[in-house]
Amino acid sequence: MGEEFVYLDNAATTWPKPEQVYQAVDKTMRESCANPGRSSHQMSLKAERIVEEARQAVAQFFNAPSHKNVVFTLNCTDALNIILKGLIKPGDRVITGPYEHNSVMRPLRTLQRSGTSVAIAPGTSDFSIDLDRFRNLCKEGVDYAVVSHVSNVTGCIAPVREIADIVHEKGGILILDAAQSAGIIDIDMQLLGVDVIAAPGHKGLMGPMGVGILVLGDNLPVQPFREGGTGNKSQEDSQPKELPWLLEAGTANLPGIAGLLAGIRYIQSIGVNTIAEHEKELARRLVDGLKKLDGIRFYCDPGEPQTGVISFTLDFMDVSLTGTMLDQAFNIGVRTGLHCAPAAHKTIGTFPAGTVRVSFGYYNRSDHVDRLICSLYALAR
Ligand SMILES: Cc1ncc(COP(=O)(O)O)c(C=O)c1O
User: Fold this and answer.
1) Given ligand 1 and candidates 103, 106, 203, which is best to mutate, with the most ligand atoms within 8 Å of its CB?
2) Is the CATH number of domain 19-270 3.40.640.10?
């Protein structure tokens, strides 16, 4: 057994969190734990100020057209369901990428069963998207494109600006699954040409679980599937038409939102690029350290890792046993299997067994990488 537990599953949820996040959650629960935007007493107003400050911070972080275009959700899956099922209708045509997570694929397959057409662009041998084929699919028509910014399996970054140009040229709307990029890659939605961003609060944004975000461009004809109390226009029995209330009903996850705000402030104090560089450096160290291990195969950019997410397989041990051995014998937590992205594994040829996935976070250090390297060499003996 190694000494401390080494957590290398940050693509699932980042851990640990910055101290400021723990404090913000705790302080909010103790001092402002009233329903935001509902009552006019001082604690409810204090709660509302936290939500509004977080909305402003998210809008600024992604360069949204307005803070009103920021909707708080339960997680990235919830954000994706709200937008996909709220926008896409029978008869629409959707183009998606080759590495999508089930939180995109499952809603799209449901929409397809009701008459939406869904086409999937193929991948390339270097784990990118085949842009020529993507362009050809769009030429046949595109109402919506849905693409993950960074694959949670390969860690490769999609060429979003090029994709946006192709989609917009044909009059389509681009929805970005930023689950693996928010907080790790600078995302200016207006510069990138992205119409909608869905992101979790609990991954790169360093907030707690149970909070996510949807950032919308202007004038999208989205219909809510969740309706209820918003604290305004209560005399009407239909959902307010204005954002964010159109898509936010019921009591918000105030401690989660406060923690997310603290996470974003922390990231801003460090700098997204500094965080990205640190995680990439650890990934480089891992790939370099394992180059001489017989029987290892990496599924990441063959040049060098693009992010802190690295997938590999070993020809001498299956992926789930590798994960169990790393955990039980070496005190190291990685993720194994399909990572909820069977489509990505079909694209890269690792379906149905999947891969061993190592995902670094800002709090990982080079000695964590070295422990993983030594453990894998020990398993090979
Ligand atoms: C690419 C991608 N999309 C969506 C999700 C879903 O995120 P959440 O767990 O916040 O619902 C994940 C989670 O791992 C992911 O990696």
Assistant:
1) 103
2) yes
pLDDT tens profile 36-82: 988 889 999 999 999 999 999 999 999 999 999 999 999 999 999 99
pTM summary value? 0.97
Q: For residue 199, how far is its CA from the centre of ligand 1 (angstroms)?
A: 8
**∠137-342-325 over CA atoms, to 5°?**
150
Tokens of 194: 């992205």
Report CA dihedral (174, 175, 178, 179) to the nearest 10 degrees. -150
User: Candidates 9, 13, 101: which one to mutate for ligand 1, based on the most atoms within 8 Å of Cβ?
Assistant: 101
Domain edges within the chain: 19-270, 272-380
| 214 phi/psi in degrees, rounded to 5 | -125, 125
Does 77 contact ligand 1 (Cβ within 6 A)?
Answer: yes
Cα–Cα distance, 227 to 220 (Å, whole number): 18
User: How many angstroms from the chain centroid is the CA of residue 297?
Assistant: 25
Helix 19-31 and helix 42-62, axial crossing angle in degrees, nearest 10? 150
Write down the pLDDT at residue 342. 98
